């Protein structure tokens, strides 16, 4: 895949050439394409060559990355092909890079496979927070399981006594006047209360 820019300043006939290959992987049961090499040509000769690493996607997809660069601060997906090559003198950075070498339909990119790694900082923070929440939940469940009942402190306490109040009409039925040597006495008819003399 060649991107021809023409004459730019002192660079005559600048061309960026992307060398793509496709391979079949039995594990994923589909074809994948890879960017193997990037070449910078001007003045009708190859001036710099970079080997690409980690730029690949299924053949029916496109590849997208926020930065594809030879700089270390952008993870350096482009590596100079050799120490003696002129690529050491170049710094190449593509911003919002997207490529699809095969199965392009109607001039539009297919669904993009992003270059973001699985363990990005945001995902790592989410995993750490989930782990902390799980530990708190496990501790709470542990405390609930080992919670001791307080019923044993109340087993020895007797239930409060209950005395039914007797109405005056009931008391009238239960007492009977007695005649005994000039003193007025009353005797309860119900013997379970005993005898009371007044």
UniProtKB/TrEMBL annotation:
It is found in: Membrane. Keywords: Membrane, Transmembrane, Transmembrane helix. It comes from the Eukaryota. GO terms for molecular function: ATPase activator activity. One of its GO terms (cellular component) is endomembrane system. One of its GO terms (biological process) is regulation of cellular pH. Belongs to the vacuolar ATPase subunit S1 family. PANTHER family: ATPASE, H+ TRANSPORTING, LYSOSOMAL ACCESSORY PROTEIN 1-LIKE, VACUOLAR ATP SYNTHASE SUBUNIT S1. This is VAS1L protein. The lineage of its organism: Eukaryota, Metazoa, Chordata, Craniata, Vertebrata.
């Amino acid at each position: 895949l060649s991107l021809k820019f023409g004459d730019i300043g002192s660079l005559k006939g600048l061309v960026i050439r992307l060398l793509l290959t496709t391979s079949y992987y039995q594990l994923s049961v589909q074809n994948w394409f890879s960017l193997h090499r990037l070449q910078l040509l001007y003045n009708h000769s190859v001036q710099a060559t970079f080997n690409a690493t980690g730029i690949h996607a299924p053949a029916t997809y496109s590849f997208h990355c926020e930065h594809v660069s030879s700089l270390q601060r952008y993870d350096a997906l482009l590596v100079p092909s050799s120490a003696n090559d002129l690529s050491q003198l170049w710094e190449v950075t593509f911003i919002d890079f997207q490529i699809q070498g095969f199965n392009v339909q109607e001039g539009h990119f297919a669904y993009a496979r992003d270059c973001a790694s699985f363990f990005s900082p945001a995902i790592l923070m989410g995993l750490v927070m989930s782990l902390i929440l799980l530990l708190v939940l496990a501790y709470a469940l542990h405390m609930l399981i080992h919670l001791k009942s307080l019923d044993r402190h109340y087993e020895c306490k007797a239930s409060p006594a209950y005395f039914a109040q007797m109405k005056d009409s009931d008391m009238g039925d239960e007492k009977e006047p007695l005649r005994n040597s000039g003193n007025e006495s009353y005797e309860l008819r119900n013997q379970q209360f005993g005898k009371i003399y007044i």
